[in-house]
Amino acid sequence: MVSTRPAPELPPTRTSPRLSLPKAPAGTVYRGHEGMWSWVLHRITGVGIFFFLLVHIMDTALVRVSPQVYDGVIATYKNPIMGLGEMALVAAIVFHAFNGLRIILIDFWSFGTKHQRAMFWTVIVLWVVVMAGFVPRQLITIIEEFPR
Amino acid sequence: MATTIDAPRSAPVHPNRRFNIEKWGWIYMRVSGVVLVVLIFGHLFINLVAGDGVRQIDFAFIAGKYATPFWQIWDVLMLWLALIHGSNGMRTITNDYVVHPTANRLTKYALVAATAVLIVLGTLVVFTFDPCPANGLAANLPDFCKAVR
Questions:
Q1: Mutate to test the interface with B, among A41, A56, A60 (most CBs of B within 10 A)
Q2: Complex ipTM
Q3: Which of A49, A77, A103 is closest, CB to CB, to B86?
């Protein structure tokens, strides 16, 4: 956004050039808006998913040690805290997936660049829809597993 | 070396270089991303939503999935695409935040090492998987192992 306001008048003396700077960055279309927050969330979810992936490959590799060892480690995943962790993992993956598709549309399609803001809110809506389906399903699993 | 960012529209650093690895890295992130959306959403649905959800997962469940090559190929594709996608993303983040040259280089060496080790490990696990191993107790093995033994 280009401001059309006239520039503030400088004090007449050159010895004290005191400019009144804005307290918050003004006139940017990026900072503090959808573009920035989608970038921040994409990074945070990406790092989280990466470290989960490292652990997940190693726990799955235990199927080559013995069935008992694998089942023992997987059993520790089946407590309510890990169940909630899985919910957070799925939430991160679903956001990263939809926002990644949004990034591709911005890169390859002029419509995408123009409507990146609307697409961010579309990502959020799709994320809410998918999570509205997954969260109850996962809660049922957590509750059914809990007494054991 | 930490990445420096040139001014927009400045001349390319290597004007005669035919193969630009950063361009292919950029393309890889998008192509693998699209494929991973399908692979991971399918993976999550089969393992966490369908049937009994996450509590159905045990050795016998894996044995059932790996009884056909379909899920073996699915999982190996996911392994390679996701790990390279993830470590390349971590490389971008490393270049953004790890400004000390030695720390930057060591972080990226660690990423390459972790990626290489886990890709080899995961690929071997999937393709050498034995649904009825000799050290398996009957309680943990899938039912079809009774017929094999």
A1: A60
A2: 0.84
A3: A49
> Over the stretch A62-103, which tens digit does the pLDDT of each residue have?
988 888 889 888 888 888 888 899 999 999 999 999 999 999
Measured in whole angstroms, the distance separating CA A21 from the mean position of its chain's CA atoms is: 33
Contact yes or no for B114 and A53 at CB 8 A? no
Is A97–B40 a contact, with Cβ atoms under 8 angstroms apart?
A: yes
- Residues in chain A closer than 8 A to B133 (CB atoms): 66-67
Structural domains in chain B (count): 1
Q: Name the class of domain A34-145.
A: mainly alpha
Q: Which residues of B61-85 are buried (b: 16+ CB within 10 A; e: fewer)?
A: bbbebbeeeebbebbbebbebbbbb
Q: What is the value of pTM for the model shown?
A: 0.81
Provide the residue range defining the domain that includes B60: 21-148
Comparing CB atoms, the residue among B33, B53, B121 nearest residue A141 is B53
Distance CA B53, CA B56 (A): 6
| Three-state secondary structure of B85-106 | HHHHHHHHHHHHHCCCHHHHHH
Residue B14 falls inside a structural domain:
no
Q: What are phi and psi of A134, to 5 degrees?
A: -80, -40
